[in-house]
Write a structure and sequence with these properties.
Blueprint (H helix, E strand, L loop, with lengths): L2 E3 L2 E3 L4 E2 L4 E6 L5 E7 L11 E2 L6 E8 H8 L11 E8 L5 E3 L2 E4 L2 E4 L4
Parallel strand pairs: 1-9, 2-10
Antiparallel strand pairs: 1-6, 2-3, 4-5, 4-7, 7-8, 10-11
């Protein structure tokens, strides 16, 4: 059975991105919020973000509320922040597979990939 997971690593501080709010939206035929989670102390979610019958082929967005995390981490950043909400739009073509979409973040850059 397929599932969607993520985790966040703070590459500027060299630690997990803990306490980051993440929203998941379906964007096929309109934008619909499916769920919301918060990363744990290891920068991971306590379970899959999407799985089972809800895990379908389509286009999705993960919205990482990184700006709030940067505020909590005590980093001295300009206002407005260069990165606040990081949106990753991606497609699920094979709903029987595991899609892992991690976020590597710093105040001025981010990257992602399809992991395992």
């Amino acid at each position: 059975m397929g599932r969607l997971t993520t985790h966040v690593l703070d590459t500027a501080l060299g630690c997990p991105g803990k306490g980051i709010q993440i929203e998941l939206f379906s964007v096929d035929g309109g934008r619909e919020k499916l769920t919301e989670v918060v990363t744990n102390d290891d920068g991971r979610c306590d379970g899959p973000i999407l799985e089972g019958d809800a895990f379908k082929a389509g286009v999705y967005e993960l919205v990482f509320h990184a700006g709030d995390y940067f505020d909590e981490s005590g980093q001295d950043l300009p206002s407005p922040k260069f990165l606040d909400e990081v949106v990753i739009r991606f497609g699920i073509a094979a709903p029987g597979e595991h899609y892992h979409v991690p976020l590597l973040i710093s105040p001025f850059a981010f990257s992602t990939y399809r992991g395992s």
